[in-house]
Amino acid sequence: MKAIVYHEYGSPDVLKLEEVDMPTPKDDEVLIKVHAVSINGSDREGLIGKPFYARLGGLRKPGYPILGSDIAGRVEMAGRNIRDFQPGDEVFGEVPGYHGGFAEYVCASEKTLARKPVSMTFEEAAAIPQAGVIALQGIREKGKVQPGQTVLINGAGGSAGSFAIQLAKYYGAEVTGVDNTGKLDFMRSLGADHVIDHTRQNFTKIGKQYDLILDVIAHRSAFAYARALKPNGTYFCVGGSVTTLFQVLLLGPWIKRTTGKNIRLLVVPQNRKDLLSITELCEAGKIVPVIDRRYPLSDVPEALRYVAEGRAKGKVVIEILKG
Ligand SMILES: NC(=O)c1ccc[n+]([C@@H]2O[C@H](COP(=O)([O-])OP(=O)(O)OC[C@H]3O[C@@H](n4cnc5c(N)ncnc54)[C@H](OP(=O)(O)O)[C@@H]3O)[C@@H](O)[C@H]2O)c1
Fold first, then answer.
1. Model confidence over 131-164: pLDDT tens digits?
2. How far apart are the C-alpha atoms of 11 and 9, rounded to whole Å?
3. Is pLDDT above 80 for 323?
4. What's the alpha-carbon Rg for the chain, to the nearest Å?
């Protein structure tokens, strides 16, 4: 099969279109013919090997040579323990380990897959999984956003952020989106009441406080985030610098004891239940998976370059098989 392969961490130039062996499904996996795969922040991190957690699979070189985690396609073959799917089913979801999707075929566990809604294209379905589930967990499940609350989303113009703005608005919050200059109008178009350009302003220093901060690109100190929270407010760190992640882990409990503010990591397990919940909202038209650009498989390097240049608004999708 054809796949986009890399053997060293680096820029999109290290990605090559190659012929590789088809994967073989284990007993508890299905083999999927991939129709579409979307790009997430985790692909960008996996490509460059930064932050450090992106190297957990391979310290010096990538542990797995194919990136791509959010796929939609058709089941080609089912392992002997598979109960929920059979060949021919249209499915979508996350690939465990966040890799393997930039290819014509991929194997995935049935636990993180769901049936693709008939009303959705493969591209729309592939845009949802990781980003949608992070937003659902951050805003609704763990964030428990209530009408009238103030919510700030840092990195709001990207994959998870584009879902999070819409969800927070849907649940009645007053939403502030933070991202680069080129994404301010985009965040407003998704419903953000206020936008902050991170290249001009540091949201932790403008004197405003929020009930909930969802941060997909954390890089400041835990104390800075605490300063931007209302009493009893919550800060969730989803991804970002390892220094900040450790600070949140180590200082979070102390900040809670001394100020009452919650500074936590948001761990988002890949799972079917949340995938179905966020997809229901998409099917009902309450949330829209926003696809900025589509590229063919051979242009994954170009697509990741577009993302790395800070231009992608919402999701970028790779169309492997059209229709
Ligand atoms: N916690 C968990 O269990 C879990 C699970 C899965 C994934 N993750 C992590 O979740 C994160 C998900 O990110 P994503 O897919 O939404 O990424 P994304 O699509 O790359 O979006 C990140 C957004 O943040 C913007 N940004 C960059 N620097 C910024 C700054 N200093 N201030 C404000 N915004 C800034 C980016 O703009 P530019 O385009 O200018 O860079 C981009 O719009 C990744 O770190 C991933 O590893 C966590």
1. 999 999 999 999 999 999 999 999 999 999 999 9
2. 7
3. no
4. 19
Give Cα separations from 150 to 153, 155, 189, 210 (angstroms): 10, 16, 18, 5
For the Cβ of 238 lying below 6 angstroms from any atom of ligand 1, the answer is yes
Pocket test for ligand 1, best of 238, 245, 290, 305 (most atoms within 8 A of CB): 238
Ligand 1 near 319 CB (within 6 A): no
Best CA proximity match to 70, nearest among 317, 310, 308? 317
For residue 274, report the distance from its CA to the centre of ligand 1, in Å. 20
pLDDT of residue 286: 98
Backbone CA torsion sign across 303, 124, 292, 50: negative
CB 210 within 8 A of CB 228: yes
Q: Ligand 1 centre from 25 Cα, in Å?
A: 31
User: Which DSSP state fits 21?
Assistant: P
Largest CA distance in the chain: 58
Distance CA 172, CA 137 (A): 16
- Ligand 1 contacts CB of residue 177 (under 6 A): no
For residue 40, give the amino acid letter.
Answer: N
The mean predicted confidence, pLDDT, of the chain is 97
- The rounded distance, in Å, linking the Cα atoms of 185 and 192 is 9
Task: Please calculate the CA angle 222-259-155 and round it to the nearest 5 degrees.
Answer: 35
Express as a percent the part of the chain with pLDDT over 70: 100
Contact criterion met (CB below 8 Å) for 77 and 3: no
* Residue 237 to residue 263: CA distance in whole angstroms: 8
pLDDT digit string, tens, across residues 35-58: 999 999 999 999 999 999 999 999
Q: Work out the number of other CB atoms within 10 angstroms of the CB of residue 308.
A: 14
- Model confidence at 214: pLDDT above 90: yes
